[in-house]
Amino acid sequence: MTKIFSFNPGQVTYHRISTDEQGDSHFDSVTVKQRLVQAAPPAAPFYVSEDKPASKYRFYTFEPGWVGELHPAPARQFLALLSGEVEMETTDGEVRRFVPGDLVLLEDTSGRGHVTRNIGDGYATYLVVPAPPA
């Protein structure tokens, strides 16, 4: 299990699933640049990225053994896994496992989509933040 979501000083990297022109889905990784700034004086400086729009959030919880067969994402959205262990598979056959702390941006809102599986022994819960079209 390789964690892609990571922090290195000045950047955050997360998973992304997108759709190609043939309607197939693929994984890649996205890196967001940050700057060390005095953003909340008198607190010490911390790393901040550029603002992106977001206006609401929700939670998804999957029962043990739950499988979401091949489906496109219902909307462009960030998923931050809070509990459990989940696996996602894109149509090119790549499978990635996610554990609490992993972040995924779903952009495969058309085409064949992806498969999601709760592979842990308990419930899996995501914090979901819808994102406007890119």
Automatic annotation (TrEMBL):
InterPro entries: Cupin_2, RmlC-like_jellyroll, RmlC_Cupin_sf. This is Cupin. Residues 59-129 form the Cupin type-2 domain. It holds the Pfam family Cupin_2. The lineage of its organism: Archaea, Methanobacteriati, Methanobacteriota, Stenosarchaea group, Methanomicrobia. It comes from the Archaea.
